Amino acid sequence: MDRQQDIGELSQIRRDKLSALEAAGRSPYLVTRYERTRQAEEVKSGFGALEGQTVRVCGRQMSKRDMGKAFFCDLLDGSGRIQLYVKVDDLGEEAFAEFKRWDIGDIIGAEGTVFRTKRGEISVHVRTIGLLSKSLRPLPEKFHGLTDMETRYRQRYVDLIVNPEVRDVFVKRSKAMTAIREFLTGEGFLEVDTPVLHLLDTGAAARPFKTRLNALDLPMLLRIELELYLKRLIVGGFDRVFEMGRIFRNEGMDHSHNPEFTMCEFYQAYTDYHGMMDLIERLFAHVAVSVTGSAKLTYQGTDIDLTPPWPRLTMVDAVRKYAGTDYGGWETDEAAREALRNLHIPCEAHFTKGDCLAAVFEEKCEEHLVQPVIIMDYPVEVSPLAKRKPDNPLFTERFEFFINRSEAGNAFSELNDPIDQRGRFEKQVALRRAQGVDARVDEDFLAALEYGMPPTGGLGFGVDRLVMLLTDSASIRDVLLFPTMKPTE
User: Whose CB among 74, 213, 307, 458 lies 3.0–4.6 Å from 267's, allowing a Cys bridge?
Assistant: First the structure.
């Protein structure tokens, strides 16, 4: 008998048990509530005060061990597991016989006294017990469990039941998001919500998802960033704002990319990218300590230290250090393109010196950036929203920070010159239109800039990638409760 046939027969047996209960007028689905007084972990951690006391616990039955006229079974709730001791002398013959027919996976509620077994395990000696919901599908086999990653991602609800370490990942994710909010609100930032539905493809590199607003008969896009609306709020007088929101990008999927993911972006008036550097170092260290107890972590076998301050390198210096080529020696755009060809790096005909510098950095430098490091001063060609450096207008006051060879966040001294911004937008849109994209300049954002935006620092980072780091998770799917998956049919 194959596994699928076996599961089908076991499911039918459970359905037959349910039919018998319903025929007797005892359908578990008629139960509407159960008054729990303690969770499993509370019983165990508070044993000193609770020993001999009556408690009511409820959750999923995960195992049963038949001792003849008594059973030991494990009950799983949101806090963990607790052992139940169920004896025929306490329940009576009829109730005990009914309890014996319940299956692994059923949801039950039990009342009894707290005690410690002869083997030292804190347990509940059950006096009354009831079936609260019937599990019609068997859980994965006890010793094999749910191990296939595709199945685990598709059926996260089962994954959470049978793999306790998975539950811990998502508890830590929640703690991380709380710690981010605590830190930013403690720094005076106001949390806001901005639109998910956008009207314009502004020509940014990310490809958006398309939808339609039937009420106005308008084509719309799911957002690919939070930035432009948050900077409108800086114009409006909110000096410090942040948002943690879902972002949607219609692009590839791999171990670090999912089509929908969570971004945190924050903007602060009257500061620059140096202010953002100081802030992100402290934020990441704060979140790490809040979630794991330390700013020092181990990720996939590599020790990572998030303790501030982090080293800071210009992109020019990083390319000189790790790629052995010098931007200062490229006298023309063609000389820069020739340098790329000599390094066997893909190069397009329109690449300028700035484009070439960014390409060399991406291909030759990122692999060396294991410990947290800030790479600053990016070429203007790849930084359409960043302010130019006053002493060198070919570069911008932009930085990205890298951890474990991967970009973890992006920040600018925000461009607040509406004339310069228009020129960069128009160039970006023209390039995207040449590629067949119906891109348009965001005139409303430019209008906001024309009212005047103060000098501002802004930064964005992927929350999911931070959680991967904090939980030592190799794939972004491991830190998303329901990652995007290809249909099985």
Answer: 458
Cβ proximity of 418 and 462 under 8 Å: no
The total of other beta-carbon atoms located within 10 Å of residue 230's CB is 23
Residue 397 burial (10 A CB sphere; 0-12, 13-18, 19+)? buried
Report pLDDT for 1: 41
Contact 484, 253 (CB under 8 A): yes
Q: State whether residue 129 is helix, strand or coil.
A: strand
What is the Cα–Cα distance from 184 to 180, expressed in whole angstroms? 6
Residue 146 has what pLDDT?
63
Residues in the chain with pLDDT values less than 50: 1, 143
Query: Which tokens in the block code for residue 310?
Result: 């982090």
Pairing between β-strand 296-299 and β-strand 302-305 as defined by DSSP bridges: antiparallel
The CATH H-level superfamily of 162-311+371-479 is Bira Bifunctional Protein; Domain 2 (3.30.930.10)
Element (H, E) at 232: helix 227-235
Longest dimension (CA), the chain: 93
Helix (H) or strand (E) holding 276: helix 273-292
Find where tokens 């954002």 sit: 445
Look up the pTM and report it. 0.92
Q: What are phi and psi of 90, to 5 degrees?
A: -85, -35
Nearest 5°: the CA angle 375, 380, 381 is: 110
Structure tokens at 359: 């390409």
Query: How does DSSP classify residue 365?
Result: I
- Please work out, in degrees rounded to the nearest 5, the angle formed at the alpha carbon of residue 422 by the alpha carbons of 420 and 427: 100
Residue 8: the pLDDT is 86
Cα distance between residue 386 and residue 77, in whole Å:
49
Q: Which CATH class is domain 3-139?
A: mainly beta
How far apart are alpha carbons 259 and 270 in whole angstroms? 34
Report whether 117 contacts 85 (CB < 8 A): yes
